[in-house]
Write a structure and sequence with these properties.
Radius of gyration: 14 Å
Number of domains: 1
Number of strands: 5
Largest sheet: 5 strands, mixed
Strand content: 25-35%
Structural class: alpha/beta
CATH superfamily: Ribonuclease H-like superfamily/Ribonuclease H
Oligomer: single chain
Order of helices and strands: EEEHEHHEH
CATH class: Alpha Beta
Shape: globular
Strand order of the largest sheet: 3-2-1-4-5
């Protein structure tokens, strides 16, 4: 079983620096961690939603790189927006995050056994810490 925890940070929100983090477990063991700052032009309206999607996108790209698209995957995050949009419960709206959201949603098509689960922020501490660390605020 593959478990993915992801989170994003934007400080200040909006128009701040974006950091994102993700942790991937395979059978309970950490197999991948990412903590990275998203660099973009000063004309881009950065938001926390964009940061969350950057984290989800990075995790999905890693899963594709490992060729794990056929394995059972549980994708967990504390963003109700991202979880509900990726699971298809909500439509992707308009906003600064729309481009990365659509690119992330396109990646989902490569997976056959993926589930999305919202979890409260207090249960997403590892990914949260990685997202803030990426912008030097952890």
């Amino acid at each position: 079983m593959i478990e993915v925890y992801f989170d994003g940070a934007c400080a200040p929100n909006p128009y701040g620096r974006i950091g994102y983090g993700a942790i991937i477990f395979n059978d309970g063991k950490i197999v991948y961690e990412i903590s990275k700052e998203y660099k973009c032009g000063s004309d881009v309206k950065t938001t926390n939603n964009m940061a969350e999607y950057c984290a989800a996108y990075a995790a999905l790209k890693y899963l594709i790189y490992k060729n794990w698209q056929q394995l059972p995957i549980i994708f967990r995050g504390d963003s109700q927006l991202v979880i509900n949009q990726l699971s298809g419960k909500w439509q992707i709206g308009k906003g600064a995050y729309t481009d990365i959201a659509c690119r992330t949603k396109d990646l989902i098509q490569h997976f056959s056994r993926i589930q999305f689960e919202w979890l409260p922020r207090e249960f997403n501490g590892l990914a949260d810490k990685l997202s803030w660390k990426a912008i030097g605020l952890s």
